[in-house]
Amino acid sequence: MREREPDMGDGVEVWRGGVNAWECDEMGHMNARFYVARCMEGLSVLFAFAGLPGLFAPGAAATVQVEDMHIRFHREARSATPLCMTAGFSALGESDAEIIALLRHDVDGALAATFRIALHACTPAGDAMVWPAPFAERAGALAMDVPPEAQPRSVKAGPAPSLDGRSALDAHRRIALGSVAASDCDAFGRMLPQKFMGAVADGIRGLTAPLREIVARHADTVPERFGGALLEFRIVHVGRPRAGDCFEVRSAFTSADSRTFSIGHWMVDPVDGEVWGYMESIAIVLDLDRRKIVGITEAAMAALRPLMLA
User: Fold this and answer.
1) Does 223 have pLDDT greater than 60?
2) Would you state the pLDDT for residue 3?
3) What is the b/e burial string over 139-149, where b = at least 16 CB atoms within 10 angstroms of the residue's CB?
4) 296: exposed, middle or buried (Cβ count in 10 Å: 0-12, 13-18, 19+)
5) What is residue 225's predicted lDDT score, i.e. its pLDDT?
6) What is the mean pLDDT of residues 16-33?
7) Is 114 in a helix, a strand, or coil?
8) What is the structure's pLDDT at 165?
9) Which of 63, 75, 177, 301 has its CA 20 to 30 A from that of 192?
10) Rg (CA), the chain
């Protein structure tokens, strides 16, 4: 994949809307799965502007597969918040591309989240293909610089960690178990990225609740009400689950610093252990009244250390 020349543009608007009350979690802000859903909507619009409309529509001759998605959260988006998204191509190869997308608060322009997505062209059946000739030219006109805010800060780059068989997950806690519904998939029956994020969001409390309680109890100023939030995450898609496939998510608390937790998540087939995907998330404990991060004191770190994955 070739990097484009710098200073070629700021992208194009690809989505505009707002936060619905039913998209917010118990922390009072939009749940992470809906950030991913907004990003996927924006991808469809971006590719339509680049000459490939109906990218995820039944009957499409060409589509894409997302391989890697990195998201950083910069400012909360609460119910009824108006938002807008711009996106563009930061790199383009013969059959692959990197997309940058910026989700902003519409009123003051403040960044809500940044997205960096690596994907490749394929047929609806999943066979690799090259971009159609007109697309490359039009995509070049929709180039976008990678802002510093979109660079990884705490998550690791590169391929997903190796997983040496089913036994490697024994030390991870099962936080989700189920099957992929048709509503979780695109028109071709492939699981959408937001399903992985949603499964983690629904099941993570069993793992993080004790961690949050330790941090709050040992805080310099003990919060009256506390919860959690994500600062950053990265999803690496390894397998391609489809409608009807079973899945489980196994997660482990891997490290912490003075402000954040790092948690690793594996989505696998619970029957044969096939790996569907890996996610690394960077989380915080949030003071729900002050809307500020609760710091991890030395006393809290000492209590957390025995709970980390060895």
Assistant:
1) yes
2) 44
3) beebbbbbeee
4) buried
5) 96
6) 96
7) strand
8) 60
9) 75
10) 20
What is the predicted pLDDT for the residue at 4? 42
N-term to C-term CA, the chain = 37
Side chain identity, residue 265: H
How far apart, in Å, are the Cα atoms of 26 and each of 30, 44, 281, 296? 9, 30, 19, 22
Measured CA to CA, the distance from residue 161 to residue 125 in angstroms comes to: 27
**Closest C-alpha among 9, 48, 66 to residue 135:** 48
Can you tell me the distance from the alpha carbon of 31 to that of 8, in angstroms, rounded to the nearest whole number? 33
Q: Is the pLDDT of residue 166 over 80?
A: no
pLDDT at 175: 97
Q: What is the DSSP letter of 152?
A: -
**Chain centroid to CA 263: how far?**
13
pLDDT tens digit sequence for 111-165:
999 999 999 999 999 999 999 888 988 998 999 999 999 999 999 888 777 776 6
What tokens appear for 195 in the block?
Answer: 């399903």
Are 247 and 180 in contact by the 8 Å Cβ rule? The answer is yes
The phi and psi torsions of 242 (rounded to 5 degrees) equal: -125, 170
Q: Which residue has the tokens 């989380």?
A: 283
- What is the mean pLDDT of the segment spanning 46-59? 94
CA dihedral over 202, 190, 126, 151, signed as positive or negative: negative
User: Which two three-digit tokens encode residue 188?
Assistant: 């071709």
The C-alpha atoms of residue 204 and residue 280 are separated, in whole angstroms, by 13
**277: Cβ contacts below 8 Å, ≥ 6 apart:** 160, 196, 235, 236, 237, 238, 239, 266, 267
